[in-house]
Amino acid sequence: MSKWSNWIKWAVIALIAIVFPRVFSLYYTNLFLAFAIFSLYAVTVNLLLGYMGVLSFGHAMFFGTGAYATAIALSRIPGFPLLPSILIGGVAGGLLAVILSPLLVRVSGTAFAMLTLAFGQLIFVLALKFREVTGGEDGVGGYTVPPLHIPGIISINMTNQINFYYFAMAVVVVCLLILWFYTKTPFGSLIVGVRDNALRMDYLGFNLPQTKAINLIVSGAFAGIAGSLNALLLKLVSTVGILDIGTSFTPIMMAYIGGVGSFVGPIVGSAVIHFLETMAIRFTERIGLINGAIFILVVLFAPQGLVGLFNTAKEKWFQKKEKA
Amino acid sequence: MNILETKGLYHDFSGLEVLFDINLEVREGERLALIGPNGAGKTTLFNVITGNYHPSKGRVFFKGKDISRHKPHQLARIGLGRSFQITSTFAKLTTFQNIRQAILSKRGIHFQMLRLLDRMEDITKETDAVLKRINLDGQRDIPAGMLSYGKHRSLEISMALATDPDVIMLDEPTAGMSRDETHTAVELIRRLTEGRTVVIIEHDMDVVFSLADRITVLHYGEILATGPPAEIRENQAVKDAYLGEMEF
After folding, report:
1. CA-CA distance, B176 to B152, in Å (whole number)?
2. Could you tell me if residue A310 is inside a domain?
3. Which chain B residues are within 8 Å of A186, Cβ to Cβ?
4. Exposure string (b/e) for A145-161, b if CB count within 10 Å is 16 or more?
5. Is some CB atom of chain A closer than 8 A to the CB atom of B72?
6. What integer pLDDT is reported at residue A323 of this predicted model?
7. ipTM
8. Any domain includes A315
9. Distance CA A112, CA A56 (A)
10. Residue A85: predicted pLDDT
11. Which residues, including other chains, have CB under 8 Å from residue A221's CB and lie 6 or more apart?
């Protein structure tokens, strides 16, 4: 029964994603895609926040590095193919995590948050100053999305927005499935163990720095892929919205609003924020005010986020039914 | 043969000497109790042996190997397990998940990312078997933090034992337990540590004298006496320092 309802739920979500660009305008289609990309990004933040129990205040460095890697590769190398251009974003994000991990795995709590904040700002400033490569404040632009070309099998034109929508959506879904699987593996359970009681994990014989480093690298690499997709969607990468502190903060807010305790929480949070922004922009430009208010309300009244709230409500509802 | 021993072990906390010249010997297969008044350095000695602190002088040998500079996870992997004075479990995870972490460690599964943990039947089976053995199968899906105090402590001891260590070090396993809980815990420890080497810190003398094969008395960071329970009971120095006029 519950298995069936699960399948139906997923079928409905898949159907919405497939039909969306046929029903709504291009503007909303791209907005929907942005929601999907930020969902992936927020999930990678939650791999650290919800699963490992450390708050990354500079996650935009992974997202941004991925975006810049893709944009630079596409604008500098003529004929750079599509799939490698996404892969290079993931590799760049992962590589940055590899470089930073020796420092980051040795701290936790506030120190971790501050250290990631510092590195995030460092990368931000580097991107601004290193004009020859990153274009400074102008950023990197003027590239087109290359076609999806697999010799002898398929060649799809990705300058067509709808084609690109389906392709990017597929990448996001595949990444989310991989990450979901990842959290359910034995290694995923070790990450949760580190969050709950690091000392116990140590005394059970698990190498803490190694475990934390691997999770950090996975998180960084997939954040890089999200950034890469964002670069392809926007076709212009500059520090604003890619590397700045706001870009680090948005996924944290999404994760908290949806709920850090579950895998789908950040996705729900991303949906809420994108929906609210779309609605709010019609009336006011002060979107931050509305997002901030929602954030405060959730933290005050639903610390487990909307998913946690929903689960509690469901439990109570079924308890009542049983009693009746 | 001594499976675990310390030679001329000293430890100080930035100038404050806590352990002086400790020569502890633990024989393979015995249950050694470590007793002494509060502040004698029992837990510090545990922390130095299990790699939480490094000794300021002297060495620790485990199975004949110098482990003075080993880290806790390295020691756990070569067969030295421990429990804590303050219960240390994964409070938000279920009893089942707690034990399962230990089983993963025992099997050396550290970086498995290609299989779903819930589908690994052999691990589920082994975990359930452990839960049955420690009488916690009824609380299988309850978060560890929600267990009663006695059961919570039993869970921690069982977790340390589930990694199948050769030497298990228990830091006041019955602290804070009621009389009934203590009795159950002692029986559990006796049953689970069959054939294993146990080092146990304990204040409850009934527990000490019923469990231990040998007793080492620690007093102000020094070893006062070591010997079988009957001998320690009659030792004048121990009486003066610790046991006093207690009746046994």
Report:
1. 12
2. no
3. 104, 109, 112-113, 115, 117, 120, 123
4. bbebeeeeeeeeebeee
5. yes
6. 62
7. 0.92
8. no
9. 7
10. 95
11. A62, A90, A91, A93, A94, A97
Compute how many other C-beta atoms are within 10 angstroms of the C-beta atom of residue B104.
Answer: 26
CB distance A233 to A165 below 8 Å: no
Residue A101 one-letter amino acid: S
Q: What is the pLDDT of residue A154?
A: 83
**Domain containing A224: what range?**
27-238
- What's the pLDDT at B244? 67
What does the alpha-carbon distance between residue A61 and residue A78 come to, in Å, rounded to a whole number?
26
**Residue B2 tokens, joined:** 């001594």
* A272 belongs to a structural domain: no
Q: pLDDT of A87-99, one tens digit each?
A: 999 999 999 999 9
- Number of structural domains found in chain A: 1
Handedness of CA B96, B101, B105, B110 (dihedral sign): positive
Residue type, B168: I
- Inter-chain contact A206–B105, Cβ cutoff 8 Å? yes
Single-letter residue type at A232: L
Helices A60-76 and A82-104 cross at an angle (nearest 10°) of 140
Q: Please name the residues between 82 and 111 in chain B that touch chain A, using a CB distance below 8 Å.
A: 82, 84, 88-93, 97, 100-102, 104-105, 109-111
Q: Flag whether A87 is in a domain.
A: yes
pLDDT of residue B240: 84
